[in-house]
Recover the amino acids of this structure.
């Protein structure tokens, strides 16, 4: 595959200062646009108030839903993005509004074909008929930033052809300028304690939006995403045809499947909705906790259910990156949440930037316990991101929390993913899938980082915590596909390694103190791992772990030589 063409000199990165300087000398453009935005919503707001006064909200709900969808469509790409985010929250908006806003995913009014084909020819520098053997007469999908045609290359491969909307950059810059201006003026008066950071959130959104309209960047993101999931066949990513791509035209593999915008997609694809939900949630967790490279816009129009039982991502314009320290701290936060170590959880919020380093976290600790105290408790089945965000909003109002710009995208991604899952299964609870995944990763101890975090879970004040281990196993086993034995095998192999010396001694102490060493489960696990260890290694491991104890403490099946003779 050839290298992607260079976009150097073509892409104009988002620059808040440059945009502000431009419109500072053209105030009439900003004023007219602002008046147009306000005027577009006046009739809608008045209609909602009138419906409340006349007690006709239910009867007029379909009409208002159509009205808001039309308003957002007229206002253009920036506002369409807002509508797309709302379309994934069936727990926040009514069914009528949800159905209409879903149309914003890929059923927007297309722009004329002659403009699209002229753009393709200009970007690829040859006639359309010489590039594609076939191309559809009309777009098969029209989204906020471009539209898609179905085609076929002369090599016979079916492809999707994305062509960008004309004059896109000027429209985005003006709306972003106004959004940032409003954030600076009114952000401090919002009920959440965001302060000046709201402008940083707008800047983060603007940066990602400008990256999204560079199709070279999108193609590179797709290839990187595919590389991350190459060993996870449940996630499918279309291949990129670089010879037929440019900064404003992208040709990629055609995906046969059913978009998740269709509530019957799982039925039509003959796939269990819960299976799709699990794929989506676990893939999101892997993006955040393993790869650090995550999809920031996983709305239903960007996701497909395939007849092979896989989920396909088809749009990679809005992505973001987490550094290793942030990934580690996120895992730490999950571990501390599971352990109910709220003092350490407060410190995690400092590391992640939600609290400044000079913040006195002592009064915040009991507040965190009030907010998250029942996450692992009996009410975990009723816990979702809506509950978390609602409670956290109250916390941010009372304490000096702030949302770092990067985490605005993470929160948006998680909330959107949960919204997709709720569309497929209204009874879905994201915690029921995410907790078992994290528990399984901790129990497996696949990396030194996870091994260290497993130690944090299993020990408190220098003592082994059996209840925590049992809780962790119970959480992991809520996933019916989870097989404890292979995971236990990995854990036992680590336990018998040089790196596991400290944990090994503490476990043996705890086993003997709690009189658990003679259980059938321990014997079974021992039989699983003993064949992997050479006799001399086995002797060294056992001697090192059990030297403090007499032979009377040892089970009969454990092949340990006479210690007194040693």
């Amino acid at each position: 595959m050839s290298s992607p063409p260079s976009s150097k000199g073509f892409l104009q990165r988002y620059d808040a200062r440059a945009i502000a300087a431009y419109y500072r000398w053209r105030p009439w453009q900003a004023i007219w646009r602002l008046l147009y935005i306000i005027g577009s919503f006046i009739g809608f707001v008045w209609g909602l108030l009138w419906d409340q006064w006349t007690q006709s909200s239910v009867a007029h709900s379909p009409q208002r839903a159509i009205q808001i969808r039309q308003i957002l469509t007229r206002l253009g790409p920036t506002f369409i993005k807002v509508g797309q985010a709302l379309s994934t929250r069936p727990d926040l908006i009514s069914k009528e509004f949800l159905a209409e806003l879903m149309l914003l995913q890929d059923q927007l009014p297309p722009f004329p074909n002659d403009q699209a084909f002229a753009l393709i020819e200009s970007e690829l520098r040859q006639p359309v008929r010489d590039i594609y053997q076939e191309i559809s007469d009309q777009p098969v999908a029209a989204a906020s930033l471009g539209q898609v045609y179905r085609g076929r290359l002369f090599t016979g491969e079916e492809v999707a052809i994305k062509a960008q909307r004309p004059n896109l950059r000027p429209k985005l810059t003006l709306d972003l300028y106004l959004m940032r201006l409003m954030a600076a003026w009114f952000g401090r008066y919002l009920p959440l304690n965001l302060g000046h950071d709201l402008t940083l959130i707008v800047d983060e959104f603007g940066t990602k939006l400008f990256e999204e309209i560079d199709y070279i960047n999108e193609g590179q993101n797709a290839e990187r995403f595919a590389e991350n999931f190459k060993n996870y066949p449940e996630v499918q990513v279309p291949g990129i045809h670089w010879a037929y791509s440019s900064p404003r035209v992208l040709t990629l593999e055609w995906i046969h499947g059913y978009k998740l915008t269709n509530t019957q997609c799982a039925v039509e694809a003959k796939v269990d909705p819960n299976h799709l939900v699990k794929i989506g949630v676990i893939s999101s967790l892997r993006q955040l906790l393993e790869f650090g490279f995550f999809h920031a816009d996983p709305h239903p129009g960007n996701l497909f259910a395939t007849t092979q039982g896989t989920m396909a991502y088809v749009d990679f314009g809005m992505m973001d990156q987490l550094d290793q320290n942030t990934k580690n701290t996120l895992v730490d936060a999950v571990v501390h949440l599971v352990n109910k170590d709220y003092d350490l959880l407060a410190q995690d919020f400092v590391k992640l930037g939600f609290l400044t380093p000079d913040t006195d976290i002592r009064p915040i600790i009991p507040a965190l316990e009030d907010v998250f105290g029942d996450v692992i408790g009996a009410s975990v089945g009723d816990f979702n991101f809506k509950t978390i965000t609602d409670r956290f909003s109250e916390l941010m109002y009372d304490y000096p929390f702030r949302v770092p710009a990067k985490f605005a995208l993470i929160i948006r991604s998680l909330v959107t993913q949960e919204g997709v899952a709720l569309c497929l299964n209204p009874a879905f609870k994201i915690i029921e899938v995410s907790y078992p995944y994290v528990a399984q990763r901790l129990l497996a101890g696949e990396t030194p980082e996870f091994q260290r975090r497993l130690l944090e879970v299993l020990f408190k004040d220098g003592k082994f915590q059996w209840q925590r281990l049992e809780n962790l196993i119970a959480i992991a086993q809520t996933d019916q596909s989870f097989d404890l034995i292979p995971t236990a095998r990995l854990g036992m192999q680590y336990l018998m390694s040089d790196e596991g010396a400290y944990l090994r001694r503490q476990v043996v102490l705890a086993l003997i103190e709690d009189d658990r060493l003679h259980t059938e489960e321990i014997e079974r696990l021992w039989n699983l791992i003993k064949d992997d260890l050479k006799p001399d290694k086995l002797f060294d491991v056992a001697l090192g772990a059990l030297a403090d104890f007499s032979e009377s403490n040892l089970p009969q099946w454990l092949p340990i030589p006479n210690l007194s003779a040693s």
In short: The two ends are 64 Å apart (CA to CA). The CA atoms of residues 62 and 96 lie 5 Å apart. The mean pLDDT is 76.
